[in-house]
Write a structure and sequence with these properties.
GO molecular function: oxidoreductase activity, acting on paired donors, with oxidation of a pair of donors resulting in the reduction of molecular oxygen to two molecules of water
Pathway: Lipid metabolism; polyunsaturated fatty acid biosynthesis
Strand content: under 5%
Pfam families: Cyt-b5 (PF00173), FA_desaturase (PF00487)
Structural class: mainly alpha
Helix content: 55-70%
Radius of gyration: 24 Å
Protein name: Acyl-CoA (8-3)-desaturase
Organism: Aythya fuligula
Number of strands: 6
Shape: globular
């Protein structure tokens, strides 16, 4: 009986070959990516990717080692499912990532990642998150007791609305923790509690949040890859480069030179009550996310059963609209202060560290800022280490600052009110850039 022959040598690829498989151009639109020098063909798998088709496709034709490490707590388990996708590896003469990337910066960040894991900064303090959940539930109960005890006159009605608006904002930050797999070591428990918090406490679908938010983290402020900047160009002209491009093309969907004014109308007050509120139902029905729809309905059933006897139909509809208005203002100002004033452009395929630093900024730490923003005042650290529990951001921040200083990268950190004002200032600046290009170029 003949002994089996040697296993065939793995196929070897160059970065030029890989870059051609970025799902662009005429069919067949192949999608390849690289993780730890291994080349994977995701041309079919991307539709079955648990994190969504688009987020993994955003790295087609690129090295995806750092985002793979950042997004997957249980890497050994994930690698088992990746085996059938493996088609080869980089040729020996090829660098481990694209030659255009800063080799020393990539290596230094990966060393920082190893240090963070050894320091235990990815391990959660579950008591912190349970106390946060308890404070949300107490505020929810206090809102109902306020109307039940004091009646439905104007003052208790408004107090209850503020308390419920706070519940919605704080539950938004908490669902964000579970959505990022930051609380439990097992992903299934994070997913389950995530559905409870975002579905039952907020009335929104976990699948919708996952679909949008993971794309945002993969390619923040990259037009056509980050859905958070999809308001360009229909409503706003964002970023210097994109605004000038829009002006040169003579495109005018809105009077962008006034966008810093109408932002106060169609931005913070309107996003949740006038857009998210109906779109989330369209999303779950279109994608047949029936489990998410069931969780959402439990929120509305509970809300109507508890407040309808106290307020009647008109009162409960008014309360719900007011709560969404408060939540919307809170959500938009906090989430946009870290990104809108930063660099916005097409994907240039720079390294993970630079991708996150050019698109994010921080807000000064304080007990209030931490609570008010759900620790998203540490947006830089959150983007670099998306599965890190938020109570550890402050511990890794000095290490990130040190790496920035070493490589001459600016670490943006500002007061809360300055961060809010910078949203308006950046919209004004990009609007003026658009107008100049529109009229003179």
């Amino acid at each position: 009986m003949e002994a089996p022959g040697p296993a065939p040598a793995p196929r070897r690829f160059t970065w030029e070959e890989i870059a051609q498989r970025s799902a662009r151009g005429p069919p067949p639109q192949e999608r390849w990516l690289v993780i730890d020098r291994k080349v994977y063909d995701i041309s079919r798998f991307h539709r079955r990717h648990p994190g969504g088709s688009r987020v993994i496709s955003h790295y087609a034709g690129q090295d995806a080692t750092d985002p793979f490490i950042a997004f997957h707590p249980d890497k050994a388990l994930v690698r088992k499912y990746m085996s059938p996708l493996l088609i080869g590896e980089l040729a020996p003469d090829q660098p481990s990532f694209e030659p255009s990337k800063n080799k020393k910066l990539v290596e230094d960040f990966r060393e920082l990642r190893v240090a963070v894991e050894k320091m235990g900064l990815l391990k959660p303090n579950r008591t912190f998150f349970m106390l946060h959940l308890c404070h949300i539930l107490l505020l929810d109960v206090a809102a109902w007791l306020t109307i039940w005890y004091f009646g439905s006159s104007t003052v208790p009605f408004l107090i209850s609305a503020v308390l419920l608006g706070t519940v919605q904002a704080q539950a938004g930050w908490l669902q964000h923790d579970f959505g990022h797999l930051s609380v439990f070591s097992e992903s299934r428990w994070n997913h389950l509690v995530h559905k409870f918090v975002i579905g039952h406490l907020k009335g929104a679908p976990a699948s919708w949040w996952n679909h949008l938010h993971f794309q945002h983290h993969a390619k923040p402020n990259c037009f056509r890859k980050d859905p958070d900047v999809n308001m360009h160009p229909l409503f706003f002209a964002l970023g210097k480069t994109l605004s000038v491009e829009l002006g040169v093309q003579k495109k005018k969907f809105m009077p962008y030179n006034h966008q810093h004014k109408y932002f106060f109308i169609i931005g913070p007050p309107a996003l949740v009550p006038l857009y998210f509120q109906w779109y989330i139902f369209y999303f779950v029905v279109q994608r047949k996310q029936w489990v998410d729809l069931a969780w959402m309905l439990t929120f509305y059933i509970r809300f109507f059963l508890t407040y309808l006897p106290l307020l009647g139909v008109k009162g409960i509809l008014g309360l719900h609209l007011l709560v969404r208005f408060i939540e919307s203002n809170w959500f938009v100002w906090v989430t946009q202060m870290n990104h809108i004033p930063m660099h916005i452009d097409y994907d240039k395929n720079v390294d993970w560290f630079s991708t996150q630093l050019q698109a994010t900024c921080n807000v000064h730490q304080s007990l209030f800022n931490d609570w008010f923003s759900g620790h998203l005042n540490f947006q830089i650290e959150h983007h670099l280490f998306p599965t890190m529990p938020r109570h550890n951001y402050w511990k890794v921040a000095p290490l990130v600052k040190s790496l920035c200083a070493k490589h001459g990268i600016e670490y943006h950190c500002k007061p809360l009110l300055t961060a809010f004002a910078d949203i308006v200032h950046s919209l004004k600046d990009s609007g003026e850039l658009w107008l100049d290009a529109y009229l003179h170029k």
